[in-house]
Amino acid sequence: MTFGLNAIRVGMASALAGALALSGALAAQADDATAETETISVAMVPSGFDSAVAEANGYRIVTDSDGQQRSVAVSPEAVRFEKSLAMSRTTWVEGPCGNSWINAVSRGNSKFISTGFVVPRPVIAKNWTVQVWGWSGMPSYWWGGASGSSWSSSWSFSMPGDGFANVLPGSNVVMNNGAVCASGSPGENFHS
Q1: Contact, 156 vs 111, CB < 8 A?
Q2: What's the pLDDT score for residue 90?
Q3: Where do the structural domains in the chain lie, given as residue ranges?
Q4: C-alpha–C-alpha distance, residues 42 and 73, integer Å
């Protein structure tokens, strides 16, 4: 499976536009809340490689003499993708794994959460869980599957009182070159 650079850019732009639209909608709903909320963003960190994903996408995982692993493009499609990726301007994605984020807004018993990530490559698989900690229990929300290099989801629910929401440790993505990136587990208190 290969992805063109334009498709990646369109996916990134679409996810960013969606996140901005959601932020506006959440801000409008929480306009008269006493406390301001902000999106908490934390760097994602490399946590290994999935060699089956790498091979399926034209890459090979190699181990250097110092014991460090890396992914190497071996198919013509993967080599072309790497060249186009190197020439693209993705200055807003820092490091090898990008970042993950969460935003938690409360308006009385109505809670609004958005979460997502931005990484430098297409995502072949994600394992993403947000846990809500509050007086009425601990609901969790899970997502899986493929996505572009950026992804977000938003939802609302009812829960009395205050609480805290975070991306659980262990949440991760597997990119097209087999690299696995783990969320930095961003979290935020709900504000009423």
Answers
A1: yes
A2: 58
A3: 5-189
A4: 28
